[in-house]
UniProtKB/TrEMBL annotation:
Role: Catalyzes the phosphorylation of ribose at O-5 in a reaction requiring ATP and magnesium. The resulting D-ribose-5-phosphate can then be used either for sythesis of nucleotides, histidine, and tryptophan, or as a component of the pentose phosphate pathway.
GO cellular component: cytosol
Name of the protein this chain belongs to: Ribokinase
Swiss-Prot/TrEMBL cofactor(s): Mg(2+)
Enzymatic class: transferase
One Gene Ontology term from the biological process aspect of the record: D-ribose catabolic process
List of catalytic residues: D252
Activity regulation, short description: Activated by a monovalent cation that binds near, but not in, the active site. The most likely occupant of the site in vivo is potassium. Ion binding induces a conformational change that may alter substrate affinity.
Amino acids binding substrate: N12, T13, D14, G40, K41, G42, A43, N44, E142, D252
Record: residues binding K(+): D246, T248, A282, W285, G287
Amino acid sequence: MSASLIVLGSANTDLTVVVDRHPRPGETLMGGDLVTSTGGKGANQALAAARAGAMPVMLAAVGDDANGRALLDALGAGGVDVSSVAVIPDAPTGVALITLDRAGENSIVVSPGANARVDAAAVVARIDELAGPRTVLLAQLEVPLAVVEAAARALERHGARLVLNLSPSRAVEPWLLELCDPLIVNAAEAGDLLGRAVDAEGAERAAAELLDRCRSVVITLGGAGAVAADSHGALRREAPRVEVVDTTGAGDAFAGALAAELADGGTLASALDRGIAAGAAAVQWPGAQPPRR
């Protein structure tokens, strides 16, 4: 039986401290109480997709530890199928170390742990079981690039759709970009690909340039919304004005909701609308994942 949405990515424990401002190199600052929560770009996006009405299958890895069990519980309670998440006995669950300032801006360092042990052969085998022509796979780059590449090749064999969030930003092979439908990047990641700075005013031109490398592209612009481009042309969506509590996970909420809409048969335009709404909601709660209902 094929799955409409598969999410391949990371699952982490987030350790967050609120600070008045981010420290300078070599500086020690006093912060607030440590907050422990579930996170990871893959897990965040899978939960966002489930919140948007999808029933995503998660392909990931956690450690055989308390953090891993907490992640599996949180994902399962949030409507994500975790039956394909590997439990790695000799690796810790990944951890993200987050500082969050009073304006809601964050700084993050990730220790990948089990995320670095996601097995490409196991991922391909599961995709071969689950993927069909209408399947959408959403991936990011907090798991090994070789795993994402293997998954993309497997998707291509099944005529399925790859949505790649190129985050954390890194160089990838041109053939991988060519399969992206869409490629999701923020302005900084778009700038890395183009070799120049990209801002909100130049985002539509940047999207048009990136469209030469992929099937469709979305550039997120934070509070300024997002732009997209495909063979039908370019479009821009503004973000609603909301009170920002925490920007952690806002991009993941956007990507998960966008992928859910595509998996449901929506257009890029309707997917962009869903993503904008989800991202705006995400900045209004603390942490990378929404509060449980």
